[in-house]
Design brief:
Oligomer: heterodimer
Structural class of chain A: alpha/beta
Number of helices of chain A: 14
Number of strands of chain A: 9
Strand content of chain B: 5-15%
Radius of gyration of chain A: 24 Å
Largest sheet of chain B: 5 strands, parallel
Distance between the termini of chain B: 56 Å
Strand content of chain A: 5-15%
Distance between the termini of chain A: 46 Å
Order of helices and strands of chain A: HEHEHEHEHEHHEEEHEHHHHHH
Strand order of the largest sheet of chain A: 2-5-8-1-9
Largest sheet of chain A: 5 strands, parallel
Chain lengths: ~280, ~400
């Protein structure tokens, strides 16, 4: 960024890699939506929280579900309510406006100050969903035919979109976005991340735990590799249980916090036994 | 100004479009790159590449286009700063270790002249052409040379480490995203994603979903008397049969097939999903288990499943000539077949027009007589993400008749 003091630099509890910070800043400057992909547990959703906190902006979260329609994010015209009110004639129904409720995207546009809009897990919705939002995200405006009104963004919101790649996003949509794939953090980065959460963790415990953690991740054929959030849970369990670092190297306590799947646990135990206890995998 | 880079990207197979290129150039003009190759690498990637599957190709293109440019990967003043304060850069030490290092550092400073160290450093930088890990002389990681990262030499020069300090060309050179390429073999998640494309949404079943639009229309027409209209919900109607080869020549691909299999079983997305196994070639029986004990007559497949079922056969299609073309050609001595395998394959194709063959071996090794013949009956695809996508496209489009002569 040209102005070093402004712009996003990560926040107290979220460690962003430097390229990611730069890209967040470019996306903000150009007003383009930022699509974040990556393994589960690499902090995609947290990024938006962190941006909102660091830049002191309001965060609007639009959680996408399999039934979410693009129009839900713009506005909902509650026709059933109006119909119901019309039946009993005790309310004035001539003003349609009271039956039009803005969705998350609409709220972000109407906001008096710039907000951060998080569209979380966009891939959960139908394949066509992102395409339906193309124009709205491009122009940052939409039309409400019932009122014949144009909702135009007062300030272009900072749009962060996360995807778990359950479905691929359409090309036309991606063309208009900036894309970043968050890699799984390496051990040095992970150490920093853990320290943010547990500042007074013993160094030796942390080192042993990380060694184990990356080793488990390398076991072939796991259905669900443990990710950052599992590691944090595990370390918390280790700290609360007062497990000594030496014990981690000889056995793995609280394995259940790392591997959440019966088959994975079974596979893991078999493998470790086959290698003669919890020894490191011989790779050479 | 970098227009050629656009074409290099295209050549490497990155599907970059003019729109993306223009926004990239826009960002370039607005000066977000601080004239640094690092920024260009990461921000360019964010603008031009929209899937991690293409990161590797981007790396290759970047290397080809910018690889020749000298970058000042090491800022000398930073290096000097490290030299003065190396201990701040070693956070993993216990107090005892720290004291130890402090002592060694003093000794080191006594023995070595800073100027001399810098001179050596530049020299080695010049000499050294490639990455180096471990060892005691070169600049690298994990070693005991005074130069490099994550090493154990007190007062040595740390090079790189935090990725920002590496030159972009070097990051590109590492090709860390090779595993995300589309044309490599797949994992369960990717397979699931590909299989998700296999769907046909149809309105089926009982009418239980409230159709609001219709209800409103109807109610308005009735003059305000509320009239509820229900309709059927949409669901996936795809029925899938998976036939898998468990023959000896398939052994190297067991894991790959397992992944496809577990992805398909985990899907819960198909209306119906059946799987059977066979050994090398299909004759009058297929098997419900991998060890080929529980027989199911192949005829049963024809009588139980209608032609709307989609069939995916997984196998290397390599077998002895006789296994495919001869009566009693089956590889198992205890098994006799009065019709050659090819006839059964033809019958399967005739009964199930929507059928494809997935081959875990590379296309280059398909030049085998039986593979060739089978690929004329069933459209054959590689068992990779791209191959799977093509196969699913073939399954959902109009089937072609086998071209055997």
């Amino acid at each position: 960024m040209t102005d070093k003091n402004k712009g996003y630099k990560g926040s107290d509890y979220y460690i962003a890699s430097k390229p990611l910070m730069e890209i967040v800043n470019v996306a903000i400057a150009l007003g383009k939506p930022l699509v974040i992909k990556g393994e589960p547990g690499t902090g995609k959703t947290l990024l938006a929280h962190s941006i909102a906190e660091a830049l002191d902006k309001k965060l609007i979260i639009w959680n996408i579900k399999s039934t979410t329609k693009a129009k839900d994010g713009l506005y909902v015209y509650d026709t059933v309510q109006r119909l119901n009110d019309a039946r009993f004639k005790d309310k004035d129904i001539s003003d349609i406006r009271q039956y039009i409720k803005l969705g998350k995207l609409g709220q972000a546009f109407k906001s008096d100050e710039q907000v951060v809009l998080l569209i979380d897990e966009i891939d959960k919705a139908d394949v066509e969903f992102p395409n339906d939002l193309l124009n709205e995200l491009d122009e940052m405006s939409f039309h409400i035919p019932e009122l014949d009104e144009e909702v135009v963004a007062k300030h272009r919101p900072i749009v962060v979109i996360t995807s778990n790649s359950e479905k691929e996003l359409p090309d036309a949509f991606l063309r208009r976005c900036i894309f970043y794939y968050i890699e799984f953090p390496d051990d040095e980065m992970m150490e920093r991340i853990v320290k943010v959460h547990y500042p007074d963790i013993e160094n030796k415990l942390l080192r042993e735990a990380l060694k184990r953690f990356y080793w488990i991740r390398e076991v072939d054929g796991l259905r669900k590799k443990p990710s950052t959030s599992e590691l944090l849970d595990w370390i918390k369990a280790l700290m609360l249980g007062g497990i000594s670092p030496d014990k981690i190297s000889s056995e793995i306590p609280f394995l259940g916090t790392l591997l959440k799947n019966e088959q994975d646990t079974g596979r893991f135990v078999r493998l470790s036994n086959a290698q003669g206890g919890f020894g490191f995998k011989k790779r050479f | 100004m970098f227009t050629d880079f656009f074409f290099v990207l295209k050549k490497k197979g990155v599907p970059v479009t003019i729109t993306e290129w223009l926004s990239f150039i826009e960002a370039l003009y607005k000066g977000y790159f601080q004239s640094s190759l690092n920024h260009l690498y990461y921000i360019g990637r964010a603008f031009l590449v929209k899937s991690e599957a293409y990161y590797d190709m981007y790396d290759l293109a970047f290397q080809e286009f910018f690889g020749g440019i000298e970058t000042s990967a090491l800022e000398l003043d930073k290096v000097m700063e490290w030299l003065e304060n190396p201990l701040h850069r070693l956070p993993k030490l216990t107090p005892e270790e720290l004291a130890e290092f402090q002592k060694k550092l003093e000794e080191f400073r006594k023995e070595h002249d800073m100027e001399e160290l810098m001179r050596q450093f530049r020299e080695r930088l010049k000499e050294q052409k490639e990455r180096h890990d471990g060892g005691g002389k070169w600049i690298g990681t994990g070693g005991t040379s005074p130069f490099g990262a994550y090493g154990y030499h007190p007062g040595g020069i740390r090079v790189g480490g935090e990725s920002w300090m590496q030159s972009a060309a070097k990051v590109a050179g590492e090709r860390r995203f090779r595993n995300y390429r589309n044309d490599l073999i797949l994992d369960v998640r990717q397979t699931k994603m590909a299989l998700k494309r296999l769907r046909e949404l149809k309105r089926e079943g009982s009418q239980e979903e409230l159709n609001i639009d219709e209800t409103i229309d109807k109610t308005a027409k009735e003059g305000g008397e509320i009239e509820l209209v229900f309709s059927r919900s949409r669901e996936n109607t795809v029925r899938l049969i998976l036939l898998m080869d468990t023959g000896g020549s398939m052994l190297p691909y067991t894991e790959l097939c397992e992944r496809l299999f577990s992805a398909a079983t985990q899907m819960e997305h198909f209306k119906e999903f059946k799987y059977y196994f066979f050994h090398n070639c299909i004759y009058q029986d297929v098997y419900e288990d991998m060890a080929n004990y529980k027989r199911v007559p192949t005829e049963k497949l024809f009588s139980n499943f209608h032609k709307g079922y989609k069939v995916v056969i997984v196998g290397d299609a390599r077998m002895a000539y006789s296994e495919l073309f001869d009566v009693n050609g089956c590889i198992d001595y205890f098994y006799s077949n009065d019709k050659p395998g090819i006839e059964w394959l033809m019958r399967i194709k005739q009964h199930f027009p929507y059928s494809v063959w997935l081959n875990p071996t590379h296309r280059n090794f398909w030049g085998h007589y039986t593979v060739d013949t089978i690929s004329k009956i069933f459209p054959m695809f590689e068992l990779t993400i791209d191959g799977l996508k093509d196969a699913i496209k073939a399954l959902t489009s109009k089937p072609k008749q086998p071209q055997l002569n």
